[in-house]
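Translate structure to sequence.
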């Protein structure tokens, strides 16, 4: 388990990665939530509430499914729609959701988060 300073450093590194990821073609934006704060960067500000609700529902549903089917701890969730997909990642006490067009390679996005 990482120490508090290691976790803080990991989140700081994550924020730097997100700055690069958000500029990529097809990436709509992201929401990074902690228990008392959130960092939101969505290209269309009129959709922030919609994306925040979607993020919360995806993460809650993933946790519920995990509990029902005894899947152990969920670390990532990918939800694909007709045109859009969301990659949600649980990092300690933080919840990250990255919104993108369906044709964006979410595996590359995940690798570029440098979470390992």
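Result:
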């Amino acid at each position: 388990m990482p120490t508090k300073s290691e976790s803080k450093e990991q989140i700081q590194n994550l924020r730097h990665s997100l700055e690069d990821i958000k500029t990529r073609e097809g990436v709509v934006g992201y929401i990074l939530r902690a228990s008392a704060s959130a960092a939101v960067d969505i290209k269309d500000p009129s959709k922030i509430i919609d994306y925040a609700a979607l993020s919360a529902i995806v993460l809650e549903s993933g946790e519920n499914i995990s509990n029902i089917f005894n899947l152990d701890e969920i670390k990532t969730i990918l939800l694909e729609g007709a045109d859009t997909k969301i990659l949600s990642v649980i990092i300690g006490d933080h919840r990250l959701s990255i919104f993108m067009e369906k044709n964006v390679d979410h595996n590359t996005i995940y690798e570029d988060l440098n979470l390992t």
